[in-house]
């Protein structure tokens, strides 16, 4: 078909520290919440790290990043999104001095990216909080976390300001509503957590995010600092106005976060929600002023869309979709029940742009699938992942359509550009990569890397700046 992507469009891929680095206790790193969550979102939290936790080794990116960056460069990446593990820099989170060895690792990693002409895009907090902050303070429920996060942000901004231009404050900040422990470090079990404490934690994260934007702009005048939300367009299940309103209210829960980060204040619909649910947010004296420091761009993940309904019976039918919502009868789903909707990406790009008029960055999108390693004609191991190519191609075509709609899009980073440990299942077998990593769910495997068919496809997309789509 051939789309005209803008010059300088940032093509690339994305990972997160806790899902790929491994080396969970090396070079002074402290424990993080992920080190005690061996089963991902489903399973129990353990007292201390256990051998069945695949994230402790990950894909050993900590030791093999040079080889991996080399492969990304071969595909032509212009940008590489990763996160800094907070507990490498401040092992307990509330330490006064940073850990030099942790700082050094990211110096080397970012240098390696720059050497290959790749801009690092760095998430400050991607689904991991220093475990000590979780246990001792109950994570973001405690206002003190704002100060600890600020110290961490200042430290890394100062250290990497000449290397990193693009920053994100919190990964999928809205996911704290569903995943208070992994997303917000909240130690209280979800079923015992009051809405009051949950939304107070949300408030603290929003203030911390705005504070990071404020100090980031002061310390790095050329930097671009964005928010990152899990996007999930919610269509009314039927044209019944009750369903339309139900879908709108469902979307509000997610838009709320970007609304505050992009507009600098709480929206009226959220004040109403707080009133009707007996929630009273404790504000610090400067909070409203701090929130006015809005982000430079909106970044988001996009995997699925869903439907909203007013029918309580149908609402029960929400299994599989990320943040609840009802199954759409017109869409197919992945093996994990995630409904595939390429047009939803164009839709959500339009929604965000109409709402905020700020540049957008798609920082996660991809298909989790089970891959089979085979040998090609020359006997080289590979994966014939046509299903992944199809998924990505269909979504990128919709990005092309959104560009035609006049939307400002900074870039696209495919999620899990190299296979890594899944966030939800904590297994290796839900793979997203262009590069296969030989590691199995039982922890066995050589950790060798192999190019999949999609590797060559993506290389072509990048080298033609989207013309080959
Ligand atoms: C997003 C997270 C990522 C990632 C991705 C895919 O919600 O930001 O960390 O893992 O989803 O999810 P999963 O790994 O569960 O398939």
TrEMBL record:
<dbReference type="InterPro" id="IPR001360">
    <property type="entry name" value="Glyco_hydro_1"/>
</dbReference>
<dbReference type="InterPro" id="IPR017853">
    <property type="entry name" value="GH"/>
</dbReference>
<dbReference type="GO" id="GO:0016052">
    <property type="term" value="P:carbohydrate catabolic process"/>
</dbReference>
<comment type="similarity">
    <text>Belongs to the glycosyl hydrolase 1 family.</text>
</comment>
<protein>
    <recommendedName>
        <fullName>Amygdalase</fullName>
    </recommendedName>
</protein>
<dbReference type="InterPro" id="IPR018120">
    <property type="entry name" value="Glyco_hydro_1_AS"/>
</dbReference>
<feature type="active site" description="Nucleophile">
    <location>
        <position position="364"/>
    </location>
</feature>
<dbReference type="Pfam" id="PF00232">
    <property type="entry name" value="Glyco_hydro_1"/>
</dbReference>
<keyword id="KW-0378">Hydrolase</keyword>
<dbReference type="GO" id="GO:0008422">
    <property type="term" value="F:beta-glucosidase activity"/>
</dbReference>
<keyword id="KW-0326">Glycosidase</keyword>
<dbReference type="GO" id="GO:0005829">
    <property type="term" value="C:cytosol"/>
</dbReference>
<dbReference type="InterPro" id="IPR033132">
    <property type="entry name" value="GH_1_N_CS"/>
</dbReference>
């Amino acid at each position: 078909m051939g789309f005209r992507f803008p010059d300088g469009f940032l093509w690339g891929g994305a990972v997160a520290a806790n899902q790929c680095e491994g080396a969970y206790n090396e070079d002074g790193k402290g424990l993080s919440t992920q080190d005690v969550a061996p089963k991902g979102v489903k399973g129990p939290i353990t007292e201390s790290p256990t051998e069945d936790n695949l994230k402790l080794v990950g894909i050993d990116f900590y030791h093999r990043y040079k080889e991996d960056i080399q492969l990304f460069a071969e595909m032509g990446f212009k940008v590489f999104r990763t996160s800094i593990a907070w507990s490498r820099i401040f092992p307990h989170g509330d330490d006064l001095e940073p850990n030099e060895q942790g700082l050094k690792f990211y110096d080397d990693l970012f240098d390696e990216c720059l050497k290959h002409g790749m801009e690092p895009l760095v998430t400050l907090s991607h689904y991991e909080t220093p475990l000590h902050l979780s246990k001792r303070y109950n994570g973001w429920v405690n206002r003190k976390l704002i100060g600890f996060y600020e110290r961490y942000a200042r430290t890394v901004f100062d250290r990497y300001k000449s290397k990193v231009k693009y920053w994100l404050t919190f990964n999928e900040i809205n996911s704290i509503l569903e995943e208070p422990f992994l997303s917000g470090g909240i130690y209280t079990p979800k079923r015992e957590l009051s809405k009051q404490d949950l939304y107070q934690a949300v408030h603290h994260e929003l203030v911390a995010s705005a504070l990071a934007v404020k100090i980031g702009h002061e310390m790095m005048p050329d930097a671009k600092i964005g928010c990152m939300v899990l996007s999930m367009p919610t269509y009314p299940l039927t044209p019944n106005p009750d369903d339309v309103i139900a879908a709108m209210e469902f979307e509000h829960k997610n838009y709320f976060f970007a609304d505050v980060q992009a507009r600098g204040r709480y929206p009226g619909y959220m004040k109403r929600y707080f009133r009707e649910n007996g929630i009273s947010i404790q504000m610090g004296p400067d909070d409203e002023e701090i929130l006015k420091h809005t982000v430079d761009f909106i970044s988001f993940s996009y995997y699925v869309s869903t439907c909203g309904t007013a029918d309580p019976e149908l609402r029960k039918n929400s299994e599989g979709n990320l943040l609840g919502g009802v199954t759409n009868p017109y869409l197919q789903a992945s093996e994990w029940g995630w409904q595939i909707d390429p047009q939803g990406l164009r839709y959500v790009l339009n929604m965000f742009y109409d709402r905020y008029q700020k540049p957008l960055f798609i920082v996660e999108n991809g298909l989790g699938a089970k891959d089979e390693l085979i040998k090609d004609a020359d006997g080289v191991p590979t994966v014939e992942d046509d299903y992944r190519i199809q998924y990505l191609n269909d979504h990128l075509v919709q990005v092309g359509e959104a560009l035609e709609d006049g939307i400002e899009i900074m870039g696209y980073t495919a999620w899990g550009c190299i296979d890594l440990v899944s966030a939800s299942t904590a297994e290796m077998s839900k793979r997203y990569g262009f590069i296969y990593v030989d590691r199995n769910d039982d922890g066995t495997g050589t950790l060798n890397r192999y190019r999949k068919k999609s590797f060559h496809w993506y290389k072509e997309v990048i080298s033609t700046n989207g013309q080959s789509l």
